[in-house]
Amino acid sequence: MSIKTVGVVGCGLMGSGIAEVVAKNGYSVIVREVNDEFLQKGLARIRASTQKAVDRNKITVEARDQLLARIRGTTHLEEFSECDYVVEAAIENLNLKKDIFERLDSITRPEVILASNTSSLSIAEMAAKTKKPDKVLGMHFFNPVPVMPLLEMVRSFMTSEATYETSRALGKALGKQIIVAKDYPGFIVNALLVPFQLDAIRFYENGMASKEDIDKGVRLGLNHPMGPLELCDFVGIDTVLFIADEVYNETKDPRYAAPPLLRRMVAAGYHGRKTGKGFYEYSK
Ligand code: CAA
Question: Model-level pTM?
């Protein structure tokens, strides 16, 4: 199947990054947000990100302009009837995603593959809402999408070989390096990352070390670009809690049991960079 137009559901942090990378690689993109305010914010994020790429000599001004011209924003999911492939990057709420998959199933042509960018939710449950569960899989990108080289593909027990092969070819065409995981809570990367982040939070909560030293230890001792608490702020403290709870609820594995501090921070609005405060403070 030839893919020319890709639909991206959601223009938040992940959806805007996915739209940027897809358009950068020559595909037309239709990106949908729930309302015009969110859509305009998302499109502005893409403009800022591509401007940064121009400033750092990663792409030319002409290439940036062509990239932006290939992206069309909408608030109507019905426009995805034009799409040859769809990546869903809405918020991490399984019921919402199931509704989106049900709607996409009736809007898109029968042969169109429906992928989810979910970081931990069940691909099979989303697939079950469609009449083509063999054409549903996970395409999990990493933040910031234009910079991070990884794509984690997730096959449910119903995903067909043809769906996998077509999606793998698309991932390669987007310049990503691919790993393949089963549809199991946390997949590969978050299954490894989240216990590490929760341990760092417990260390800090129990007063074993300062947050600065925990982060510095991992940055300088393990050569990670960010320490685990800085990374929590970067991906969103609420997201970390969400993934931990999700994996814990499904597996009952104590390594994913959220420390009390994490839950309290989320309740108090300390969601990391996006709210201006998390383990650290961020000025606008
Ligand atoms: N297009 C192309 N290149 C771009 C770009 C764009 N839109 N925007 C930035 N870049 C390039 C920059 O030019 C720069 O390249 P050079 O070093 O060659 O100049 C590079 O990307 C890094 O950009 P910055 O200089 O702006 O940023 P930085 O050096 O301060 O690094 C960071 C920022 C990439 C976020 C780095 O701190 C990092 O890698 N942190 C860890 C990120 C991480 O772990 N992400 C995964 C989170 S987990 C997740 O996402 C999954 C989940 O399910 C929760």
Answer: 0.96
